[in-house]
TrEMBL record:
Residues 1-154 form the PRELI/MSF1 domain. InterPro entries: CRAL-TRIO_dom, CRAL-TRIO_dom_sf, CRAL/TRIO_N_dom, CRAL/TRIO_N_dom_sf, GOLD_dom, GOLD_dom_sf, PRELI/MSF1_dom, SEC14/CRAL-TRIO_domain. This is SEC14-like protein 1. The keyword Zinc does not apply. Residues 169-189 are annotated as: Disordered. The lineage of its organism: Eukaryota, Metazoa, Chordata, Craniata, Vertebrata. It comes from Phalacrocorax carbo (Great cormorant). SMART domains: CRAL_TRIO_N (SM01100), SEC14 (SM00516).
Amino acid sequence: AYERRFPTCPLIPMFVASDTVSEYKSEDEAIHVIERRCKLDIDAPRLLKKIAGVDYVYFVQKNSLNRRERTLHIEAYNETFSNRVIINEHCCYTVHPDNEDWTCFEQSASLDIKSFFGFESTVEKIAMKQYTSNIKKGKEIIEYYLKQLEEEGITFIPRWTPPVACKLESSTSHTRRPVSPAINIPDSATKEGLNNKEILNTSSSPSEPTAGTPDDKLDADYIKRYLGDLTPMQESCLIRLRQWLQETHKGKIPKDEHILRFLRARDFNIDKAREILCQSLTWRKQHQVDYILDTWNPPQVLQDYYAGGWHHHDKDGRPLYVLRLGQMDTKGLVRALGEEALLRYVLSINEEGLRRCEENTKVFGRPISSWTCLVDLEGLNMRHLWRPGVKALLRIIEVVEANYPETLGRLLILRAPRVFPVLWTLVSPFIDDNTRKKFLIYAGNDYQGPGGLLDYIDKEIIPDFLGGECMCEVPEGGLVPKSLYRTAEELENEDIKLWTETIYQSASVFKGAPHEVLIQIVDASSVITWDFDVCKGDIVFNIFHSKRAPQPPKKDSLGAHSITSPGGNNVQLIDKVWQLGRDYSMVESPLICKEGESVQGSHVTRWPGFYILQWKFHSMPACATTNLPRVDDVLASLQVSSHKCKVMYYTEVIGSEDFRGSMTSLESSHSGFSQLSAATTSSSQSHSSSMISR
């Protein structure tokens, strides 16, 4: 089916033509390698094409089919402007490890624009647009040709077997794999969301490990009790993502229920789920969200005027949250508290929701991973469309969408007034499509009729203000007294206080602009400890020593972010005129740290003086060593600057008088990545030789 897109494909308009450059076939026909030169008509502005002096762009594509291993590898790189722009792409079709009836498709790519007549940014946007459209088209194209084959009567292809001569030579020492009869392409494969279908149904020989061993599968009772119905593919995705987290964040793994939420939010695309999950875990750690229920007490203004609260559960056993938005003075709350306090309160509500889901799972004996929200809009008017209030609402939605995916099971919006469509127009673009499908909106008293509230909530617990008999303890809201309003300066200081209650600091690392931290050591044999997370990009971590103090730090203008930004600052200490080996020396081997890794370590100082911890940009591809292909790396690099990394770090010096040669005190330097972890262990592998534990 894949070969049918050559020499040209009508489904890809920009693919004009292709010529075969070279072709190789092995004698046993197991290996088939073909290299083509492809002609593309890129959708770019005519002015840019004129300046570049080209109408078409040429790529070289090499396809390697291995019938013995049942793989197809596709490599492509640009021939046009290869001295200015470097594009590499790799695709791979393989047999799914857990089900031989399925085909896995993996894709990764990289883009490096060195120079392009001053139009680097434009070329970057064009490349992103073209690549995104190609990814969306990929599944459609392969299914088009599969259907074409089926219409021609080709519904199966026999498994490759060695030629007769090869069989006779090897029969004395080897037992050949039994070949199962070929079957038709199953229609159900398409419904499972797979990009392509494996055409054969085969059985493994006894000598090979088969899918379904205890290590590869979860206990059926456990799935039914805590996770719900999972297809084999979904179960496989959960296991693979959990394994990746175990290798990257040892001892700090979220519970399966939480991992599953992120997988569902990205339709079980492992790479996309892994990316947002790592970002969320880092965010939780930075803002100490795990401890919000225990350490943060909502201001009295919120307790009195925020018209929302938990109220029993719905018919499915989901915790029920009631919000009387129409009775709430959003402008007054923002003026009295500021955005950050409101956001933190909403986060505490979500954390309480996670806790209630766990409790209800135990009570009802079935998995409950989301809650129902009932929003009463009676009283909603134009004052609720106050611009700063809407801005605060949009930011809250953005944070909740990113860090609490698939936690909203159903949203019931009651008594929507005429002004509601205006608010909905402003808010809906920021809400995920999957979440939007869970919204049920009732105007006036429609919620009292068929298909209304009684379909989702038992009559006994319908709140009294909606005509029910159950007393609801949710505050009634009302106008916040203007005497409680605070000035913009007071709110700004309060916001800073809210989000800096953390021992961690954040920093940005740019290509050519590392972030450096100075530590002065008075007594030799002191211990420098560190704990940092690589939030974005890949970095190289170094430790240097100098006898003299560097000049006052220069703050890089690129890193000038606000206190609430995860980007952090950028400080450079090592003067450009300094020479390594003369003015300063390296005391530890450089350590390459990948995106998403959490690193802890220590160094026992030999001499007094000034030590510099440095996080430097690492230009190697982020996907070079991971065992899970990162399909969306290229999209991420196109959407944001590919020459920027982010780290979040904490350092501490243990004095020699406290150290006394014992390493046990270093166990205090570990960081709990998330309260969602089933178990958190300390980093006890820190040694004087600066062993790093991930």
